[in-house]
Specification:
Helices cover 41% and strands 17% of the residues. The chain is α/β, with parallel strands linked by helices. Strands 1, 2, 3, 4, 5, 6, 7, 8 and 9 form a nine-stranded mixed β-sheet that branches.
């Protein structure tokens, strides 16, 4: 079976252009009213929050969560799709060696679409989920109860930035962010990459997904951001991190791409040797 990768047309598409919007509206007339609602909300929230993207997107999440907690995490999925995307994230990390004794931070944990599976797999107290939305964290706590995960003692905490200043140095062996940078301007991504190395344990890694373009970088409203791969890998490198596109993720039925960030091992970096790989169990 051949490797499934994003098509050249999808990777070069600029969704911010008027021509694309017209073509999309003609091809998907049923989605036009929802987009117009989003555009009106975007105009109001831009005026209200201006340069505060965290406040802006927290309001977006509050609006979406009021309509549907599942739809607030991942767009317009059915409940079955919500389950499938969570399972896909879990299975991927399990195949990459996620162990019960790993200490995991999930950035943008949402209502625990994948987090419920991580919590169940990890040792008690080893899952730490953060999100900017108090509304979605309430739904996350309901997910914990619904799936009987209280004994796993998950930490669920609100955050208003990505400095991680309240978290210990070198603690997390796995940091994970799914569909976070796809909704983040570059300064938010930069803040995360500037600080994530401090909380990564030796040999740990940070996986994040993003909306990928290999054409012109752009955003739709202030909700969906499209980046070139080298923009993000170069940004990671500027903070002393090693980053690479995860080709095996590209084979999965998901519209985003994934990058893995690691800290160079000092002894190997000095010798110019390869980075150690984490072995699956």
């Amino acid at each position: 079976m051949g490797t499934k990768t994003p098509s050249d047309s999808r990777l070069s598409r600029n969704r911010a252009t008027l021509a694309h919007k017209v073509r999309y509206a003609i091809g998907h007339p049923g989605r036009v009213p929802a987009h117009l609602r989003r555009a009106a909300r975007d105009a109001w929230l831009r005026a209200r929050y201006r340069d505060d993207h965290i406040g802006y997107y927290r309001a977006v999440m509050a609006s979406d969560a009021a309509r549907s907690p599942e739809a607030a995490v991942g767009g317009r999925p059915s409940y079955e799709r919500w389950l499938a995307i969570g399972q896909m994230q879990f299975d991927y990390l399990l195949e990459h060696g996620l162990r019960p004794d790993d200490r995991m931070l999930e950035i943008g944990c949402g209502n625990l679409r994948a987090g419920r599976l991580f919590i169940d797999h990890l040792d008690p107290g080893h899952y730490y989920g953060i999100d900017i939305s108090p509304h979605i964290l309430i739904e996350a706590k309901r997910t914990v109860v619904r799936h009987g995960l209280q004994a796993k003692l998950p930490h669920l905490t609100i955050a208003d930035d990505l400095t991680f200043d309240f978290l210990p140095e070198g603690h997390f062996t796995v940091v994970h962010a799914h569909s976070v940078f796809s909704h983040s301007p570059l300064d938010v991504v930069d803040q995360c990459l500037e600080n994530v190395g401090r909380i990564l344990a030796p040999g740990g890694f940070f996986d994040f997904t993003f909306d990928r373009t290999e054409g012109r970088e752009h955003h739709v409203l202030r909700e969906d951001f499209y980046y070139r791969t080298e923009t993000l890998t170069d940004l990671a490198a500027s903070h002393g991190l090693t980053a690479r596109l995860m080709d095996d993720w590209e084979r999965l039925p998901h519209g985003q791409s994934k990058i893995r960030v690691t800290l160079p091992a000092p002894d190997r970096a000095a010798a110019g040797g390869p980075e150690p790989e984490r072995s699956p169990v």
